[in-house]
What we know:
Radius of gyration: 32 Å
Distance between the termini: 116 Å
Strand order of the largest sheet: 1-2-3
Number of helices: 15
Helix content: 40-55%
Amino acid sequence: MIIIPRKLPLHVVKQRTQHGKVVFYFRIGQGKRTRLPDIGAKDFKAAYRACLSGNPIPAKGTEDARSIAWLLAKYKESPEWKLIAPATRRSRDYAYKGVLDKSAEVPYRSITKRAVENGMEDRMHIPATANSFLKAMISLFKWAVKKEYIDVNPTTGVDRLTYKTDGFPVWTLEDVHKFCEVWPIGTKQRLAFELALHTGLRRSDLCRIGIQHLKGDTLTVRTHKTAAVITVTLTQRVLDIIRDTPTGDLTFLVSELKRPFVVDGFGNWFAAAARKAGIDKNSHGLRKLSATLAAEGGATGFELMGQYGWSNMKQTEPYTRGADRVKLGKSNSKIVAEQIEHIINPHPTTGEGSKLEDADKTAS
Length: 364
């Protein structure tokens, strides 16, 4: 029980909230209010003296409206934050945790381009982490400018780190054979493998597809990540595997509890199945193999965009470029071989020497 003195300290006012709780503020005249701890609390006097000195201490359980912690809290209450895909929010939350651990009470208006660049430098030993940090800060401060909390975006002009990476390792044909030997048709692991390889869907979509997405041999689904509509044809062999495998009511793939997978749970489950087959790779590597096989089979960039839900041709280049180089290399080597044959082999009917010999005679 809080005992309130008849006369409050100078500049301290009390207020009853809509829930009936009495709270205290420090306020000089019509100036800004600063929340104070309850009268009688151990930290009341220190907080009160800090207000009198002009350097108020944020009350426990509240955030200073000038701090980066306050700005982040506001951002996460916004509609813009709620529209971000869950996986992206998790990634940005991880970046924001690092910021809060180090700089929660830093006034957000004091953050400069140099401060953001320092944050990048602190994370430079892991380039992907540094770039994730920058993406998160760009998102936050772009929103802050829109809401007029700040006038200048401190992330403007900060460059991402460039580094070479192939991302998730792609499965090989040897991996495919090894997996199929360990997980025969009829197991849920084999069904997940077949669906991932034939459709090229991301794990967030593999978890959701079910009989409602299938009409005849045609599977149509709106992807979770990009909202692109993907339409693929399943072979009779894949349809038979679906028929011969235990599935859920609304999803083909279910956990041991016969419930639809959550995305991370599916990823861990499938990675464990791959490791049992001696393969230290995940389902996204199967998506990459699927795209590679399509490109090597002659699929155009636009056809790859259609199946894999990519929004631009640049995303198809790692697959089409490699496939084109193989085809062009084989084609060009045949041309070279034909030219060499013309040069060094005798004419089959006239008995003339090679062009190379003729050239030597002319030169002499």
